[in-house]
Amino acid sequence: MSASASSASTARSASGHTGRGTTAGPDRTFRSLEYGLGLLRLFTAERPVWGIAEMARALNVDSATAHRYVTTCLERGYLEQLLTREYRLTRRCAEPGLAVLGALEPMRAARPILRELRRQTARTVSLAVLDGDDVLYLQRLRGFARGQYQLEQGLGAGSRLQAGDTAAGRALMAAAGDGERFSQIQVGTGGLTVDEQDAPAGARGLAIAVGAPAERPSAIEITVPAQALSAAELLAEYGEPLRDARVALELALGAALDGDRAEERVA
Questions:
Q1: pLDDT computed for residue 23 by the predictor
Q2: 89 CB contacts (<8 Å, ≥6 apart)?
Q3: CA-CA distance, 76 to 66, in Å (whole number)?
Q4: Which ranges of 60-195 would DSSP assign to H, the alpha helix?
Q5: How far is Cα 85 from Cα 91, in angstroms, rounded to an integer?
Q6: In angstroms, rounded to a whole number, what is the distance separating the alpha carbons of residues 35 and 40?
Q7: 0.70 exceeded by the pTM?
Q8: Which of 61, 87, 108, 239 is placed for a possible disulfide with 65 were both Cys, Cβ 3.0 to 4.6 Å?
Q9: pLDDT digits (tens, 9 = 90+) for 10-32
Q10: 226, exposed or middle or buried, with CB in 10 Å at 0-12, 13-18, 19+?
Q11: Contact status, residue 101 vs residue 107, Cβ threshold 8 Å
């Protein structure tokens, strides 16, 4: 399927219909809002720039209607126009998603633990969860050792990668009993998962799943340049600090849960 066809399918799925119009339907939804959200969802990492005519075709509306939606997004600061008269998202579009990520308990509990792990290792450290076939990075702190900057490729909080391409994704799938189909997994002592082969972009990852009551399973990941350390060296050098970080996060999440329960009893 082409990028345009895939994006069009996404937009129609987001709006729930394919016809023209801007009035509320029988399900009490407001069609203009649905189309506006569908328009923003057209923009992806694979297709970050769109023209008016292309958006109109993808949304199944005429160019004048698409132009009105785009103008509204421009005025509200969610799109910007390029010199080519095409459009792309602004950073403002990330604010709602980052607000959600920031409110998650694992995010709050993990921040000081990830900072300490980065201080100890000088490597990029991340907290991630599974989201469908992807791994979603809730937090990603870039390391300062040689070669770490080149690995990032624009990755950060809110970034997604195919779960099977990351140590964090494979650690979570292995913890859920779904890791046997990935030949690159090597599980060391203490539940550590390491890339035996080079991952995309020349990275090698080491990860461990984190479990806590009432919380979505997550994983802590350390990423290094593949040429810097072999899988065995990565396990030997960073396995212990990663296990320590897992224990610290599980304890922090457990303490947060106990605090919430205490507040409920008081209330």
A1: 46
A2: 40, 43, 48, 78, 79, 80
A3: 16
A4: 63-75, 95-103, 105-121, 148-151, 167-175
A5: 19
A6: 9
A7: no
A8: 61
A9: 444 444 444 444 444 445 557 78
A10: buried
A11: yes
Rounded to whole angstroms, how far apart are CA atoms 191 and 51?
A: 48
Whole-number Å distance between alpha carbons of 7 and 137 = 23
Q: Which residues, at least 6 apart from 205, have a Cβ–Cβ distance to it below 8 Å?
A: 166, 167, 168, 194, 195, 199, 221, 222, 223, 224
Q: Could you tell me the two tokens for 105? A: 């308990």
The mean per-residue pLDDT over the stretch 153-171 comes to: 85
Rounded to whole angstroms, how far apart are CA atoms 17 and 200?
Answer: 37
DSSP code, position 194: E
Largest CA distance in the chain: 62
Work out the pLDDT band at 8, boundaries 50, 70, 90. very low
CB–CB of 228/147 below 8 Å? yes
Structural domains in the chain plus CATH codes:
3-89 (1.10.10.10), 97-266 (3.30.450.40)
User: What's the Cα-to-Cα distance from 245 to each of 131, 158, 204, rounded to whole Å?
Assistant: 23, 21, 19
- Short-list 160, 244, 147, 229, CA closest to 194: 229
Interstrand relation of 218-225 and 203-210 (parallel, antiparallel or unpaired): antiparallel
CB atoms < 10 A from the CB of 133, how many? 10
Question: Is residue 220 within a helix (H) or strand (E), and if so which, with residue range?
Answer: strand 218-225
- Residue 159: C-alpha distances to residues 4, 39, 120 (Å): 22, 20, 24
Euclidean distance between CA atoms 99 and 86, whole angstroms:
28
The answer to whether residue 149 scores a pLDDT higher than 50 is: yes
